[in-house]
Amino acid sequence: MNPITTLFRHLIAHRRHRSWAFLPVLFCLSHNGAQAEGLTPPEVLIGSTEGFLEFKVEEYLQNSGIEGRYEIQVSRLDPRLRLATCDRDLTVSLESPAQPVGRVTVKVRCEGSTPWSVFVPAQVRLFRNVIVAARPMRKGEELSSRDYNLVERDVGLLSQGYLTAPSQAEGYKLTRPVLVDQILTPTHVEMAEVVHKGDQVVISAGSSTVQVKMPGEALSAGAIGDQIRVRNLNSKRVVKARVTGPGQVEVAM
To answer: NCBIfam families from the xrefs (predicted)?
Structure first.
């Protein structure tokens, strides 16, 4: 069975009290006022939009492996809107943006004998735990577990990005000052240096069968993965080496 179909049926089973995007047109006829005038009730457009967005958000969370809760609010429609009752199932699609988070626009259209289309704005709030500063900090400070908290926020509002896991903060240093309760973004942090200028380091070189280690001195600082200049204390040669850990560097053979 198609997994999307299965997911959609699961959503329908849990939200039968709402109007859904793919309900038959007989649902429209249950609204007496609209039935008399042959018009599509606003409740059908709102319910179709909300149901479609629930499906899209659930699909997005499942495909992205994201954990979070969400709220959907469909904007009020213009009361002057008068659309003919559709003699086919309504078609609903996400007009913008690419992901169903934040301010979204949904296109609802009828492809029946009296075709029409309408754009319905909505707000999808996706709440996730993000990392915020537990205290004011200066540029260059290294983050530890006491320096941040995980707090639920609407990530649809965080256009600059955000951090969601301790592994994205601990062992990193700040690239700029932050205030208490400020949300940390990827641009706020960079890998902290584990080797500093003047440190005594172990230089490793070799292949899968032969490994050679020798003492060295770091001539520049670096984080894990950085290339730095190192002086071999035995030969006095200066070489470029990759930082592999605190006090550890590696040169290519």
So the answer is: flgA_cterm
Q: What is the 3-state secondary structure (H, E, C) of 177-189?
A: CECCCCECCHHHE
Nearest-angstrom CA–CA distance, 135 and 110: 54
What are residue 189's DSSP bridge partners?
174
Residue 131's beta-bridge partner residues?
A: 150
Q: Are the C-beta atoms of 75 and 122 separated by less than 8 Å? A: yes
Q: Name the helix (H) or strand (E) containing 47.
A: helix 42-64
Domain with 49, as residue range(s), is 3-126
Instruction: Answer yes or no: do 110 and 16 share one domain.
Output: yes
* Matching residue, tokens 């319910």: 47
At which of 153, 170, 191 does a domain end?
191
Cα–Cα dist 53/75, whole Å: 13
pLDDT, tens digit only, all 253 positions of the chain: 333 333 344 444 444 333 333 433 333 333 444 444 689 999 999 999 999 999 999 999 999 999 999 999 999 998 888 999 999 999 999 998 888 999 999 999 999 999 999 999 999 999 999 999 999 999 999 999 999 999 999 998 898 999 999 999 998 999 999 999 999 999 999 998 899 999 999 999 987 778 899 999 999 999 989 999 999 999 999 999 999 999 999 998 7
Report how far residue 140's alpha carbon sits from residue 154's, in angstroms, rounded to the nearest whole number: 28
Shared domain check, 100 and 32: yes
Q: Which residue, among 45, 89, 63, 49, has the nearest Cα to 4 in the 3D structure?
A: 63
34 with 118, same domain?
yes
